[in-house]
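Title: Prediction job returns without error message
Component: structure pipeline
Severity: low
Priority: P3
Assignee: unassigned

Description:
Job completed but the reporter wants confirmation the result is attached to the right record. Sequence as submitted:
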Amino acid sequence: MRILFIGDVVGRSGRAIVQQRLPGLIADWTLDLVVLNGENAAGGFGITETIYREFVDAGVDVVTLGNHAWDQREALVFIERSPRLVRPINYPKGTPGRGAAMIEAKNGARVLVINAMGRIFLDPLDDPFSAIDRELDVCALGRDADAILVDFHAEVTSEKQAMGHHLDGRVSAVIGTHTHAPTADHQVLPGGTAFQSDAGMTGDYDSVIGMVKDEPLSRFLRRIPASKFEAATGPATLCGLAVETDDGSGLATRVAAVRLGARLEEAVPRFWQA
C-alpha cells in the first residue's frame, strides 16, 4: 500500500498547495491513502467544516488534529458528522468526535488512523501510550486492519521517539506532527514501523512556524504582544512522509521524505518515480 502523510497545513497558503498538488500526486504516485494534519488550516488556528470538505474533495482520506482542534468552535459540532475527521484519542471521555477512524482506502484496504497528543509542554491530557494500546487491543494490525497509521501530535522529540519504539511492529507508521519543522530521521524501525519525529509544515516557510514574522519577533525582542499571530501568505512548501507497506503484514517496507514547493530543498520518494 502507498501512503502519503501531509504535515500540518497552515493557513490559506498551505491549503492552496494541497489543492494544487495533491490530485496530481495521487495519480502520479498511485496513492492508496492520504492522511493530512489540518489543525492549523483555518488561519493557523483550527479547522472549519468548509476547509475539511475542501481537503476531502482534493483527495484526502483522513484529516487529523491536535492541540488547536477546538480553536474554531464549530468543530465541536461538525466533527460529529465528519467520519474522516479525527481528534486526539487521549481527550477525556465525553469529548466530541473520535480519536480513531477505520476507513476504506482507495485500493479497498481497511486502514485504521489514530490521532494522539503528547503531554510534555502541551495540555495535560490522558496518557497517549495507554490510550493507543487500548485501541490496538480491539483493532490489531493484520487481524482487523490492513494498515494502521498514528499521527502523534507532540512537542518533544523524545516523547515521539518513545512512542515510535513503543508501537514498533504493531502499527504501520508513527508520524510526529506539531513543531512545523521537518526532521531528517525518517526510517523503518527494527520491528517494521515507519517513523519520523516530525513531518514538518505545509505552508509558507518564510515565516516563524507558519506565522508572519513581525509579531513573533516582537514578542521575543520586547516580551510584549503587539497584535495577533497571523498565518503567512507567501508561496508554500508541501511537507510530509511517503510510506509503502507490505500487503501481507501491513508493516512498512520503504519510507521517504516529501518536500515540494517554494523554499525547502525538494525531496520525493524515488521508489515511486516512473
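Comment from assignee: result matches the submitted record. The radius of gyration is 17 Å.
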